[in-house]
Amino acid sequence: MGQITLYLDEETEARLKVAVKESGLSQSRWVAELIREKTARQWPQSVKVMAGAWADLPTAEEVRAVLASPRTRRGSLFECMCWIPAR
Predict the structure, then answer these.
(1) d(CA 86, CA 82)
(2) At 42, which helix (H) or strand (E)?
(3) Bigger pLDDT: 4 or 59?
(4) What is the torsion angle, in degrees rounded to the nearest 10, for the CA atoms of residue 58, residue 60, residue 61 and residue 65?
(5) Kind and range of the H or E element at 16?
(6) Measured in whole angstroms, how far is the alpha carbon of residue 27 from the centre of its chain?
(7) CA distances from 70 to 27, 31, 40 (A)
(8) Average pLDDT in the 3-27 region?
(9) Model confidence over 33-63: pLDDT tens digits?
(10) Which of 43, 60, 65, 73 could in theory staple to 47 by disulfide, Cβ–Cβ 3.0 to 4.6 A?
(11) Are 64 and 77 in contact (CB under 8 A)?
């Protein structure tokens, strides 16, 4: 099992201690979980369950069509997204 040494400023260390205490994990386990989360190659389950949660969210095809529009070059992406017709 690998070991690492971390050098933290006082504020970061204090924030770490609060997060560790709230989690109920050891510092080592908390940091290991953070590393696993940050290096994951898949979306976390909490994100996957949100898929399809917004019925009015434009599809990828609708977004691509708007981005390909000549109007996109004149306005912001937000303005362009407002042109997507409601379903």
Answers:
(1) 9
(2) none
(3) 4
(4) 80
(5) helix 10-23
(6) 23
(7) 53, 47, 37
(8) 96
(9) 999 989 988 888 888 888 778 777 777 888 7
(10) 43
(11) no
**CB-CB contact of 80 with 71 (8 Å):** yes
Angstrom distance (rounded) from CA 59 to CA 46: 20
Burial zone of 63 (CB within 10 Å; 0-12 exposed, 13-18 middle, 19+ buried): middle
Amino acid 27 reads Q
User: Six-digit token pair at 4?
Assistant: 């690492």
Our measurement of the distance from residue 75's CA atom to the centroid of its chain's CA atoms, rounded to an integer in Å, reads 26
Number of H helices and E strands in the chain, helices first, is: 5, 0
